[in-house]
Write a structure and sequence with these properties.
mainly alpha; elongated; Phage protein
Length: 120
Amino acid sequence: MKDFVFLEKMKNDILRIYLEKGSAFNLNEIEMNPKRDLDESLDQMMGELSLTSKLLNEARTNNDELAKKSALLMIRAQAMSLSGFFEAICDDTENLAMLDTWLSFPEDYELPEHYNYPFK
């Protein structure tokens, strides 16, 4: 069962908006993998990190220096994968938001209240 269930929809919305904006859109320019379910990918990466965290804890409890070092190196690699995962989302949303086909924001623009978005 997936713990994350919004990323794939978000990715599909981003891809659809790219198409709507009529940009010189090329799937090769998208950082997110359009063929991979983002929810499943994040769930898998977080699951691996969770298991490695448990390994680190057990190695620390057993005072196993080499197992601790191995776990730390695995955590680093897994954290880098997570970083790349989110960096792809960041890059794609930034590239889409910076297309010159958008309307300009008026100086006094605020997100309409009917969206009930809690963060401003």
